[in-house]
Here is the input.
Amino acid sequence: MRYYDLLVSGDAREHLTSYGYSDPGIPVVVLEPSQLDKAYSPDALVFVRSSNTLEKNKKIVRAPCDGIVDPIYPRANVLDYNALTTARDNDITLVFTLSRFLSVKGIERAKLIARARLLIRMALKKGVRILLASGAEHPFDLRTPYQLESFGVLLGLSWKKAEWSITKTPEYLIRRKSHGDTT
Amino acid sequence: MAIPPSLRERRRYIAFKVVARPVFTPNQVIQGIKQSVLQFLGELGYADANFEIVDYDHKNGTGIARTTDKKKDEVIIALTLLNTIQGKKASIRILGISGTVKKAKEKFLANKENLFKGDNPQIYEENRGD
Here is the structure.
């Protein structure tokens, strides 16, 4: 079974395979919400960072990108049922990074976890794919696949779905980008 | 007073490795881990988990933590979410879980090649500029 941690940059990339992750063999690009015009690339996986408003995120889920990163803010719901339906129809993946939760503490982290749980519950109901990643820029932010799975369980996934979110979902995205194969 | 087996809590032992620069004392590491678990679980959760660091080898940065079977997932998440000790960058890498201390040491801590498989020992030197 191959584990993937797709959103790793900087010094952490050198240590990725030694933590048990496979090399995706395909570059991953993360864009800001204002760069939606570059949201398509034939060679790279393109993820767009979530905006803090629902209206901008509705534009992101209509863009030809592969996923939306961290659509959670402690003080607002930034994705609703309609946006999730659009995301499912356009085959856009919701990406949750561990580094988003590491950067905050206390009540703010608790609110983020609550928002993420609600969003994941809605996304599972709508059938939207979910991807977990560490989002590490520094080697100290890397975590093992088991720790990422337990992070997924914290957010409301079952163990099986948490495992899929770091194995089958990245494989699907890579295969779709490389070969156009969506089976 | 002996507790009957039906009421005894099932314990789990979590083997872990601290990934950090060698600037901490053993006590700082242990207290940092406990504080992180306490902050995440709260006082009631910490009491339910009955969390304790059973063994810690500061030279290798490895240790064994004890918790209850019902709270082991939450303790693992608390250890996963640790990213600083005393304000400096650090992380905990979970090596495995076992029902006894002996098996945890044999399976996860005995083989030193596997121990450093995921950690480049040079990590301590590379990031000295941080």
